[in-house]
Specification:
mainly alpha; 0% strand; binds fe (ii) ion; 10 helices; 193 residues; HDIG domain-containing protein; Hypothetical protein af1432
Length: 193
């Protein structure tokens, strides 16, 4: 299996946009926190978060090629599914963009739903922090996040349904937000929030 160091090397090679790098790190810590909560394998859930958008700069952020080209990177790098990355991690990464007509993997496992909910919530929580007077994640409360979910004008490009799907993982939305805020606060210096 790929070590975390090898994953970081991959990110350094393929990801050049600072916010994208942070987004994957944020997704990683939320996934690890969720795995901890459910007694799942933390390295595996963390790995899913850490590399889920590996191809996004590679495709110049073109949504029609995003996640499709993930396979190409694996091929270039000689990374084998089932050997270097677990099959279920691969499935979660592909299905996090199941809306793409060429992606056949559908979200079905806990890991699949957790990844798509976590990477979507991470963006939403960053948006919540940025409107705080001090722009700190520690200033964001669960209640205010819940309220912002209902405000259609706030971070309107973020699909709330993907976040609500976390209930299929077996956790309430409130607890998911609480766990995620804590996970992001723990790396606040690193993410500059
Ligand atoms: Fe993402």
């Amino acid at each position: 299996m790929l070590s975390r160091e090898e994953c970081i090397s991959l990110l350094n090679k393929y990801v050049h946009t600072p916010w994208l790098m942070l987004h994957m790190r944020e997704s990683e810590v939320i996934m690890i926190a969720l795995a901890k909560k459910f007694g799942e394998e933390q390295w595996k859930w963390g790995l899913s978060g850490l590399i889920h958008d590996l191809d996004f700069d590679y495709v110049d952020k073109d949504p029609s090629r995003h996640v499709i080209e993930f396979d190409n990177i694996l091929k270039i790098e000689g990374i084998e599914i089932g050997k270097d990355i677990p099959q279920d991690v691969y499935h979660a990464i592909k299905s996090h963009y199941e809306e793409h007509p060429q992606i056949t993997q559908k979200r079905e496992s806990k890991l699949d739903y957790a990844l798509s909910a976590s990477e979507t919530l991470s963006g939403f929580l960053v948006a919540c922090a940025l409107v705080q007077p001090d722009k700190k994640i520690s200033s964001v409360g669960v209640e205010s996040v819940m309220k912002k979910f209902k405000k259609k004008d706030f971070a309107k490009s973020i699909n709330r349904e993907l976040i609500y799907d976390v209930e299929k993982v077996g956790i309430s939305l409130e607890e998911f937000i609480e766990i995620s805020l804590k996970a992001l606060s723990d790396i606040s210096d690193e993410i500059g929030l």
